[in-house]
Amino acid sequence: MPARIRIGFCLGAGGCKDFSEGAAASVTDIFISYNREDIEQARRVAEALIADGFVVWWDQTLRAGQAYDEVTEAALRGAKAVIVLWSPRSVVSRWVRAEATLADRAKTLLPITIEPCERPIMFELTQTTDLIDWDGNRRAPEWQRLVQDIRVFLGRESGAAAALPTSGSAPTAPPPAKARRGEAPSLAVMPFSNRSGLPDDESFAFGICEDIIDALSQGVNLRVIASSATARFRNAPVLDLEDMGRQLGVRYVLEGNVRRTGGMLRVTAQLIETANGEIVWNQRFERPVAELAALQEELVLDVAATLDTNVYRLEMERALHKPSNLTAWECLARAMAANRLITPDNMILALTEARRAVEIAPDYGLAHSMLALTDGGLFYIAVPDNDDDIARVRGHIDQALALDPANPAVLGNAATACCYILQPERGLTLAEKAIRTRHGYGFAHFAAGLANVMLDRNQAGIEQFLIYRKLEPESHLQFIASAWTGVGHARAGDYEASCAEFRRSLDLVPLYAPATMLLAGVLAETGRHEEAAPLIAELHRMGTGFTPVQQELQMRRLYAGSHLQERMLAHLHRFQA
Hints:
11% strand, six-stranded mixed sheet, Rossmann fold, disordered N terminus
């Protein structure tokens, strides 16, 4: 028998672990017991728990062999909580019944009903969470109640957190652990103040703060600490911001207030760098008071999306100005900054920075995924079809997924890289998994849009790009999303909408040569040669930055699988003559 047998995995804050014979499963927060026919529901529960910060052990392999039994039992006994998913199939499974019995004896059982069923009689009197109608939304009340119950069960919360903090002193929370390898900038959201003085606005100020924390925690560009860590600062002025930043382990602090002005409710937020007290960003958001209940989620998402994008921009600038001693995260920020304008030179620079990130932290899944993204992007825009290049990028993708398979940023980067190496089917699968893993993660929708258009599922692709546009309105990749949206409209035969999107792309980045070429192609296809002529002249003036060979490669790949491909290539050849 081999010394190590890979038979399961543990996901979440502790990363991915091998569970071999004798392995210590005690790091696991939650063991999930389920019937194999319920794997999709189990996956949904596991991924949501991981997104909420728990370390989860669950099995996706066939039940076979005595060694497997021993390791599963070790993981089961080592888990702090055991979630059993009851369904008509699991109630008759001897495996699930046995696991539930062991958990019940160990007092670690937390049962969940995922389908109507009659539970085994010994568990009928056990309080059971009802997730029969849960659709995977982590904002759903039933899910939030479950997460709160689990945190109390694990001793991470002292009790329900629904009530507003009182004026008394809050318990001191330990500072969060520092980010490994400098993975991402850290942020604390301070309690928002109520400038109106109305009791209703006090509740709103507390609620919006919590909602912003939740929305930001679903992004990938920030580490957001829990509100319990900042509660002690609610009723006392912060005299030393730098010291507070050290206590909390954060680089940035977000503070804000709410105020009624006429019939409007105004939320003002500002971002402060703790090291120097400088206000690096501020913005005001307003919604009609009469419509606030319907628009509150929209307001929260606007604040979170704008903040997330601006922090990432700040981090790019910080990394670009830092001469040495870069962390892996800072190398990734430099790579993303180089990607702001997609040219071969910029892509090579991005590739160099991504390689540095991998050299600094070889076990950093996000670094490998960025290497896959940049290497794949360079292949897509400049390198003819080549099995060796495709295999190399695929190796980066596989390594990233092996290291960090549940990280939505890794999934999004890997999905896009798959599209770049002409494997959109796998790209779509990974993008959809990223969307399920992290609700509101815009780049996952970008990847899904890319994959769908490449698969000639144009309307689905257009819809995904529109979601991305809404979720990340200030993203530096919006010009690329617009160009691909234009390709989707052209492939679907809507040339007016296509032209509008190509022009939007050029409004955002006037020197984006592929959009110029694509717009000229659609204008020529619709007989508008006079409008196409100046664009063609502009394309020629761009010179070697976008060579005729690269133009043909791009046109061929952008319209691959479409009836338009040959006609667009014919237009391009006339442009080049």
